[in-house]
Specification:
Helix content: 40-55%
CATH architecture of the largest domain: Up-down Bundle
CATH class of the largest domain: Mainly Alpha
CATH topology of the largest domain: Four Helix Bundle (Hemerythrin (Met), subunit A)
Oligomer: single chain
Order of helices and strands: EEEEEEHEEHHHHHH
Strand order of the largest sheet: 1-5-7-8
Structural class: alpha/beta
CATH superfamily of the largest domain: CRISPR-associated endonuclease Cas1, C-terminal domain
Number of strands: 8
Largest sheet: 4 strands, mixed
Distance between the termini: 29 Å
């Protein structure tokens, strides 16, 4: 599980083989065996013993800002990659493989959006026609990506434009089916302009830290990944 510390003045330290969290009059302990990562989102205190205990147990400590965006992390110093991995990543970013990877990632993302909208459609017969329209538009975005050919450097902006159109279509569909209180007008980030985007931004921040960890463990070069996507 993830241990989330989001209360001002909270304190984290090591006690025996557990993490001890204290905030005002509340105190509780969590076994290191139950924790995959620790997220700290507010003005909190942590001891060096807690940091070392986390590192010894391969537990990442991720720091998130006010908007839920990760700005730093502590992980084991032995993680890294070989020169061969980095070379292959750079080669992929400039050739056919880079374009195919980028297309596959965005197609997979849009496909997941379509699957979720279909599940919403099945439980909302009154919204079926409207959702079908959004689904068809997203399927067209996938088709545009599938027929795209060339080099990544040449098609980067086109891929990003298609992803942007698909995202706008998807969130428009979501806004049309959620309760009136939570309806929103597009994505907003820093800061979020509504409750829906606030929760979404926080969730994305948590997800980003998990993806970043996976990239580090795989020996990925973050700059190369940014260039690809």
């Amino acid at each position: 599980m993830q241990l989330v510390i989001n209360s001002n003045g909270a304190y984290l330290r090591k006690k025996n083989n557990c993490f001890l969290v204290k905030n005002d009059d509340r105190v509780f302990e969590v076994s290191a065996k139950k924790i995959d990562s620790i997220l700290i989102t507010t003005s909190a205190y942590l001891s060096t013993d807690a940091i070392k205990f986390a590192v010894d147990n391969n537990i990442d400590i991720i720091f998130l800002d006010y908007f839920g965006n990760p700005y730093g992390r502590v992980w084991h110093s032995k993680l890294g990659s070989t020169t061969l991995i980095r070379r292959r990543q750079l080669e992929s970013s400039t050739g056919d493989k880079g374009l195919n990877l980028a297309k596959e990632w965005i197609i997979c993302k849009i496909g997941n959006n379509i699957d979720f909208l279909k599940s919403l459609r099945n439980s909302r017969p009154k919204k079926e026609k409207m959702l079908n329209g959004h689904i068809i538009s997203l399927e067209k975005n996938i088709y545009m990506l599938q027929k795209m050919k060339g080099l990544l450097e040449e098609k980067r902006n086109s891929i990003m434009a298609i992803e942007g159109m698909a995202g706008k279509e998807y969130f428009k569909a979501l806004s049309s089916v959620i309760p009136e209180r939570f309806k929103f007008k597009g994505r907003s980030r820093s800061p979020a302009k509504d409750e829906f985007n606030c929760l979404l931004n926080y969730g994305y921040g948590v997800l980003y830290s998990m993806v970043e960890k996976g990239c580090i463990l795989a020996g990925a070069c973050c700059q190369t990944l940014n260039n690809i996507v």
